[in-house]
Queue: 2 jobs
Job 1
Amino acid sequence: MTIVPAAEALDLDAETLAGHESVLYCRDEETGLRSIIAIHDTTLGPGLGGTRFKTYPSERDALHDVLRLSQGMTYKNAAAGLPFGGAKAVIIGDPRTDKTPELLRAYGRFVDALDGRYVTAADVGTNSDDLDIVGETTTHLTGRTVAAGGSGDSGPDTALGVFVAMRAAAERLWGAGGLKDRTVGVEGAGKVGGVLTKLLLDEGARVVVADPDPEARERVSAATAGAVQLAEYLGGPLEVYAPCALGATVTVARVNELGARLVCGAANNQLPTQDEDAALHEAGILWVPDYVANAGGVIHLVSGERLGRTRDEVTADVKRIADTAREVLSHSADAAIPTGAAADEMVAARLAAARA
Ligand code: NAI
């Protein structure tokens, strides 16, 4: 196995990696492993972020992805108040054909060589079962199966975090009991959307759930005794839009088409471009930034499994997402800046204070 700085392996100029503390490239001939670990910022603690297993058109594309994702993890972990910095890894290849136990063990050795400066987890193309194997060669990971001592499905905690953030934002817009009798559209009835739907119904909201997968619709219908309106794709009129399926769906045009005034959901990278942050603000649409609203997942992974907190403490940590959402929305209103910019500013201030 060879581990070298990515700048050397991929012949990059220093500017490409600017802003990252360390970016390493690993190749293991025996197992076919090709992987990049990017550590963006360890001011708040070891870099924590998942491992994406994916085919890329080129190693440069993989590098671009891992740099962007590791920076995003610095913001997400800091906004969640976790003692972890930001990092991310990619394994280049097709998870359906290239993922072997030997390759995962070799990847674990790569993670281990960083001596805990990077803590890995699952992401697109990897899951808890894979982490159990990675865990044979490193202890610097979180998110193994419950059977292996891990914390299991993070979906319910992610849903709880989205729910408390949405309720805090709704109260800002509509006053106390802000979600009661509001029509909320949940896009995606998966592990997060399904639980979020139940929380919303308990709060007295009307819920429209959209999912192209008939089995997912069936599951949510059964779990709620038919109390929700089902659709294949989300349409209006709504008051709240909760994107819990894919990224890049939140645009002014789409939100206006749905008639929503508030957007709060679990999907990562909800805005197709950074410009949309200002556009939403100007259009009077209240957007709770994705990395603030969906931090319940990473809190779930870290609090119980790495920090040894009890179930009740983890729930309390997740519920504090409401306070963060309130802070972001207040800062946005006071400074007359978009909510995404407000969240970024708060995180930058937190990092600067920690550095000082
Ligand atoms: P999931 O894979 O369990 O569910 C996603 C659902 O969205 C599926 O049922 C799928 O059929 C549906 N879907 C796909 N395209 C759709 C469309 N155009 N309209 C409506 N529904 C559509 O995923 P999960 O775990 O519920 O996560 C949801 C989102 O939240 C993902 O973007 C994920 O990256 C993000 N997220 C999840 C976390 C977690 O703890 N599970 C943590 C942080 C973010």
Note: The mean pLDDT is 96.
Job 2
Amino acid sequence: MNPSPAASLVDRFGRRINYVRFSVTDRCDFRCVYCMSERMSFLPRARVLTLEELAALGRAFVALGVRKIRLTGGEPLVRQNVLWLCRELGQLRENGLTELVITTNGSQLERLAGDLHAAGVARINISLDSLQPDRFRRLTRTGELEQVLRGIRAAQAAGFQRIKLNAVILKGRNHDEVVDLARFAIKNGLDLSYIEEMPLGVISDHDRAEAYYSSEAIRTDLARVFTLTPSTETTGGPSRYYRIPGTDSRIGFIAPHSHNFCGDCNRVRVSAEGRLLLCLGQEHSVDLRRVLRAHPGDRDRLQQAIIAAMHLKPHGHEFQLGGQPIILRHMNHTGG
Ligand code: SAM
Ligand code: SF4
């Protein structure tokens, strides 16, 4: 029996879950200082979900009423044959999926943007923390700014609309680029979200409390140059949006510290290993890989496991800036 989608994914607090993020790999060609430690060990291949398993998960979630799937990672576009997965998931639009979207560091877009668009990917978020090549390299440890800028242009040329930049702002590292990043977004017709760093995984690069730069501080910086008008627009995520009159860009703020967004949470995540994570900032999880591998092809059992997991979804995160992070997994495992 197929569970009825209408009432399926609702948690104990009455929140309807209609958005899922898949971390399709924990690997990445960058080593951003807030996301990874300099020396990372990655998962052995057998522990990572196969593309077929990810496609089966996509089908199960959409049958349960999920309307938006985001592919992330690690860097989703370094996963071999990721286009196959995009095509498989893209077909779920016939079953009720309204949006297949990707978050990427942009390094592979020059090569892949056209095929991603053709595969049914609706929108792309591209991470960009600095417009200064040296600084970009320091923040990503291995990244090349010009390659990402070419990727952005390729995504625009491929026909992607409402491309959004994501910028993690760290005090003393790139907080003086808040206005430059906004000018860049406006000039190129892009949206932009500023993100407060979250304490996920132990990192050695900087002290997170010292590097904290609040959304409020960013808004103050912007207000010196632009008029910011609050907007009720939403993209189904935790960003709070503003408009700058006379421009087409939306300016968003993702502020887990200064604005807790848990009350409206509509999403869950699947880690690269197939752990269904009920909250970015808590450890509550269910091992869906075990279900997939113990009962291949059994969609009902998979759906029942997902439905049962909703009871574990906690009310919210408990991020703290001081001391050791309470969440030891790095963002690349979780899928940001
Ligand atoms: N590799 C892709 C990228 O960088 O866009 C997708 C995965 S990355 C983990 C997704 C997003 O999470 C990026 O925008 C990145 O800047 C953000 N991120 C990573 N670690 C973070 C942290 N500790 N706090 C806040 N955002 C973080
Ligand atoms: Fe890679 Fe994205 Fe993490 Fe940077 S933020 S190291 S690009 S996964």
Note: The domain at 25-334 is CATH 3.20.20.70 (TIM Barrel).
